Amino acid sequence: MQLSKFTDYSFRTLIYLAKNVHKNCTVDELAKELDISKDHLKKVVHKLAKTDYIISTKGRNGGLKLGLDSGKINLGEVLKLTEENLNLVECMNESDSCPLMKDGCKLKGLISKSLKVFIKEMEQYTLEDIL
């Protein structure tokens, strides 16, 4: 399993903003410091700015700031927000995609259960825990 770059970049952005809470950060600064494409980062910032996780202010003195205390940003919730597709195998999305499903294959259930455990583990931590 590999998380998407979008999720990775979201976590990086939140960590950077949490470490720099006393200043407004720019997309250019974040892109440079985090070694992320500016275009990709704009998409991440746009999505996170629709939540309380970051505050985006326009204008001369604008920029990006963490919107919540780092102890209130749950990593599991960020994961669920940013991962577009957590279906680890094709049959999690389409049950008729595999001929073995007719014979009662238990792989889908095992993978689904494992994914829930992974998400539950991520939900045990906040941004503050990883700073």
Automatic annotation (TrEMBL):
GO molecular function: DNA binding; DNA-binding transcription factor activity
Pfam families linked to this entry: Rrf2 (PF02082)
Coiled-coil segments: none
Organism superkingdom: Bacteria
InterPro entries given in the database record: Tscrpt_reg_Rrf2, WH-like_DNA-bd_sf, WH_DNA-bd_sf
Name assigned to this protein: HTH-type transcriptional regulator NsrR
UniProt keyword list: DNA-binding
GO cellular component, one term: cytosol
PANTHER family with a match to the protein in the record: HTH-TYPE TRANSCRIPTIONAL REPRESSOR NSRR (PTHR33221:SF4), WINGED HELIX-TURN-HELIX TRANSCRIPTIONAL REGULATOR, RRF2 FAMILY (PTHR33221)
